[in-house]
Amino acid sequence: MKLTWFLDVPELRRALGVILVLALGAFLLFPLATLVIWAFADVWRYPNVLPQSFSFRWWQWVFANGDVGKAVFYSVTTAPVVTVLSALICLPAAYSFSRLQFPGRSFLFISLLAANAFPKFGLYISIATIFFELNLINTFWGVVLIQLINTLVVMVWIPAAGFDSVPRALEEAARDAGAGPLRVFWRITLPIAMPGIIVAGILAFLAAFDESQGTLVVGSPTITTMPILMYTLVSNYPEPVGAVFSILLSIPSLVLLLVARRYLIAGYLAAGFKGR
Amino acid sequence: MGVGDARPSWSKATPRPRVAGSHLREAALGLVMALPPFVVLLALIVYPAVEAALFSLGQVPTDNVAFSTGMHLIVSKTLTLEVYRQLFASSFFLDDLSITFFVTVLSVVLVLVISYILALYVRFGVGPLVAVVRSLYLIPLFVPVVIASYALITFYVDHGIVQAVLTHLGLGYAPPIYHRAGIVIGEVWTSIPFAVLLLGSGLDGLPQEMVEAAHDAGAGFFGVLWRIVIPLNVVPAMIVVTFTFIGVLGSFTVPYLIGPNAPQMLGVAMQAYFSSYQQPQPAVAMAMITFLLAAVAGGVYVWATARSGKAL
Questions:
Q1: Which class for A169: exposed (0-12), middle (13-18), buried (19 or more C-beta within 10 A)?
Q2: Chain B residues within 8 A of A117 when measuring between CB atoms
């Protein structure tokens, strides 16, 4: 009998699928669920499977903490600046790669991959030594620049795939009907390419907002964004503090995910990793 | 959405009737628009990497305080490998290197296997559960690494919830947190979305007729898998291997929070040398070693894709 006989029995195959889904769900979600329970736990001592008592007092503690306010401020200022800067730098390039012919086009497109081809932490250490020289260490703009690196590829490749998806025939028809090139761009090209740009914007924002490695090297101890404060909270305070703060830190991701879930097409997400 | 079917635009020329001279204007405009991200790349990646490489080889510019005020500096007029020689003579570093290697290789293998199973399930599975998996595997993409690491710690830690449940069931438990197994769990957790996305988009490109024809010809599940699916999906798999390798190699947060105090993965060791010990030179040399390892992985990827005759 073949080793894989069970795959030919529909019931067993279905059971295998269920087991796979449950295992994946448990692996991915149970740790996050544990964190949520911790955020509302007052006393949770081993070997209890659930907390002995619940309370909100750690929420009060976190909201009353001055460092938290500072971290929220740095996070909500750096991440949007990074996203806008990245869009300004990358979106024209994305359009250019998709629609224009110029020398060195494929080389430049592929070379962007260099931003992802370096082991990140080694790169941050190298950049930090240069930033010392340029007086960018412990500054807002130093953090913005280091967070910018992780947005380059998604901000070029995904919008480029978006521009690719605009049918040329449509643009040409609009041209034939007498629309000027700018009008065609604003009325036809941009709206159709928009989902790709939105996905790229969300991923760039989250990459900046969640960045915890380069920011630590370049920004700490002055520019402590929320992920950076998390290092301190995790090591110096009881579990519920880190758990409460984790939930606060997840809010932007959750909101963006819900608001934009119809744009988050796997095809566009994949384009951010493989070009098109 | 036609993203998957769109031919890569950088590889195709699209001639359009136009007036003479507009080619040149288009080329100039295209180049000007495409250059800014490339300039950022040169300034923030290539230039620092080259400077750091020279620094690790004993070239210490006096005008850079970060370089010249470091402790235990090795300064040389000519290029020297002394920094590296001292690193490799240190048993601490060798332990760090070996745990880095262990975690990286094991994580890559696990990510590849788990993600392949998930990607196959999403591509070929039927029923309502497939949709569940389709959104489930993306979750780590939207969870900051710090939170993921902390969640994994609270879940798997000594006297944590897993141990509590297992104890109630009368089972033993060896907590992986603060051990290298814990780092592997963290790296796998955070790497899954990228790997499944890439493998999945590769599988989406497989011709359905080919799979069905092989099935009709009597090939079983594994027959189709070995003979058709895997060989036709080599390039995405190589990309996953390469970039997971580079990602784990260059990670800091997961090993810093979940890993043991000693030995440490190179990312953690680099940070300690750079910030705590005020020794930027060995830190930068370690960075170079990770770059070199990544270059080897990248080389293998280029070699494999060149052999398979397909580009990215």
A1: exposed
A2: 246, 294, 298
Nearest to B112 by CA among B5, B249, B281, B244: B244
Higher pLDDT, A220 or B283: B283
For residues A99-122, give the mean pLDDT.
88
Residues of B in contact with A231 (CB under 8 A): 146, 256-257
CA distance B305 to chain A (A): 13
Q: What is the pLDDT of residues B135-153, one digit of tens each?
A: 899 889 889 999 999 999 9
Of B63, B67, B154, the CB nearest to A34: B154
Residue B44, H or E segment: none
Cβ–Cβ contact A174 with B under 8 A: no
Under an 8 A CB cutoff, do B146 and A234 touch? yes
pLDDT tens digits, residue range A169-225? 888 899 898 888 889 999 999 999 998 999 899 989 999 999 999 999 999 888 999
Partner residue facing B155 (CB), from A31, A127, A267: A31
Q: Name the closest residue on chain A to residue B125, using Cα atoms.
A: A17
- List for chain B the helix, strand, coil content (%; round to 5): 70, 0, 30
ipTM field: 0.89
**Chain B residues within 8 A of A121 when measuring between CB atoms:** 250-252, 266-267, 270-271, 287, 290
Residues 95-114, chain A: which have Cβ within 8 Å of B? Answer: 95-106, 108-114
| Record: contact B9-A112, CB cut-off 8 A | no
A231-252, pLDDT tens digit by residue?
988 888 888 999 999 999 998 8
Residue B7 DSSP class: P
Instruction: Map chain A to HEC letters.
Output: CCCCHHHHCHHHHHHHHHHHHHHHHHHHHHHHHHHHHHHCEEECCCCCCCCCEECCHHHHHHHHCHHHHHHHHHHHHHHHHHHHHHHHHHHHHHHHHHHCCCCCHHHHHHHCCHHHHCCHHHHHHHHHHHHHHCCCCCCHHHHHHHHHHCCHHHHHHHHHHHHHCCCHHHHHHHHHCCCCHHHHHHHHHHHHHHHHHHHHHHHHHHHHHHCCCHHHHHHCCCCCCHHHHHHHHHHHCCHHHHHHHHHHHHHHHHHHHHHCCCCCCHHHHHHHHHCC
A-B C-beta contacts closer than 8 Å: 359
